[in-house]
Design a protein that fits this description.
Blueprint: E1 2-6, H1 11-23, E2 30-38, H2 46-60, E3 65-73, H3 75-86, E4 90-94, H4 101-105, H5 108-116, E5 121-124, H6 129-132, E6 134-138, H7 143-153, E7 162-169, H8 182-214, E8 221-225, H9 228-238, E9 243-248, H10 253-257, H11 261-269, E10 273-278, H12 287-292, H13 295-302
Parallel strand pairs: 1-2, 1-4, 2-3, 4-5, 6-7, 6-9, 7-8, 9-10
Antiparallel strand pairs: 5-10
Helix pairs in contact: 1-2, 3-5, 7-8, 9-11
């Protein structure tokens, strides 16, 4: 893997390097350390701090090739241009401890990078070794989630991680006062039950495929009903996990996935690293294939769905226990 890590004089660089220490990303990687001198706000001390950060990076990555580059110009554009010309497989950015992951995810530089990068973007945040081994994938039954799972299946470090797939469906309205008839309310309830069953079958199918590609017996999953941002953030912190993997629609990029209400809240509330896999079309994780293999769903196409009871509550969940049941 060709890993581009962006370093500067801030504590974000320390966070990115410390994230690498327990992430497993160093394995089988070629690493390029990039420092961009902002043409408008550059610091005279920046090259000195970059040299110090680069030395720490080289000390951590003694077993792999590390080179470095210094560019001058617009920070986001220089990162994107370097990633494209060097053919990076992953861009790693850091986040400052004082303001949390929201500072970088919602900042102008990372917004541009995540929206336009031709490869996944990972915002690293330091975690202890026991937490770093836990990876949470927030997925639905969409193409972008399939792409994120396929990307994860290809990572050399993934077989060493505890991977949990979480899917969150919106709850039904608390009140049906706006519904004009009982039959319409019943139709809405049945439709949600069908969507929950569909989501469950797709996620189950993908987890089995992911498990097979990682050489393990199973990859556990949870289907929860609730506010997606709150539920994902609570799960990430309650486990806790060291990395959250999300897919992003290529057609709308960060504006839809990260700056929308769900992802923005997750970015602010969650304290773990976040990997954004943008616009990837999967060739192995297919929704139609998953549904075609489901005899139960075929039957539901001709009959109205019954109560599924497929969802669970994040509160009180023994996340580690899911890997031993």
């Amino acid at each position: 893997m060709r890993l581009l890590i962006c370093l500067d004089e801030s504590s974000a660089s320390t966070q990115a390097i410390e994230f690498l220490a327990h992430s497993g990303l160093v394995k089988d990687s070629s690493i390029r350390a990039l420092h961009v001198v902002d043409k408008n706000h550059g610091s005279a001390d920046a090259p000195h701090f970059f040299q110090f950060a680069e030395q720490n990076l080289r000390a951590l990555c003694q077993s792999v090739t590390v080179d470095s580059a210094i560019e001058t110009g617009d920070v986001a554009h220089c990162i994107l241009n370097t990633a494209a010309s060097w053919k990076a497989d992953l861009i790693l950015l850091g986040t400052s401890e004082g303001t949390g992951i929201a500072r970088l995810l919602l900042g102008s530089v990372s917004q541009v990078v995540a929206e336009h990068a031709s490869c996944p973007v990972l915002v690293g945040r330091a975690r202890t070794a026991d937490v770093a081994k836990n990876v949470l994938v927030a997925a639905d039954d969409s193409e972008c989630s399939a792409g994120a799972l396929e990307w994860l299946s290809e990572q050399s470090w993934a077989p060493e991680k505890n991977i949990l797939v979480l899917s969150v469906v919106h709850p039904l309205p608390a009140s049906y006062g706006f519904v004009d008839s009982v039959s319409r309310a019943s139709e809405m309830l049945l439709q949600q039950q069908y969507e929950e069953l569909t989501r469950t079958h797709v996620i189950e199918h993908w987890c089995k495929k992911l498990a097979g590609e990682l050489g393990r017996n199973r990859v556990p999953h949870l289907i929860a009903v609730g506010d997606p941002s709150d539920t994902i953030a609570k799960a990430a912190d309650a486990w806790p996990c060291g990395l959250l993997v999300v897919g992003s629609h290529g057609r709308s990029g960060i504006a839809k996935v990260l700056l929308g209400s769900v992802s923005q809240k997750v970015a602010v509330k969650s304290s773990c690293a976040v990997a954004i896999v943008r616009g990837r079309k999967s060739t192995r994780f297919d929704t139609a294939e998953a549904l075609a293999e489901s005899a139960e769903l075929k039957k539901l196409l001709a009959e109205k769905p019954q109560s599924a009871n497929v969802t669970t509550s994040i509160v009180g969940t023994d996340f580690n226990g899911l890997f031993y049941c």
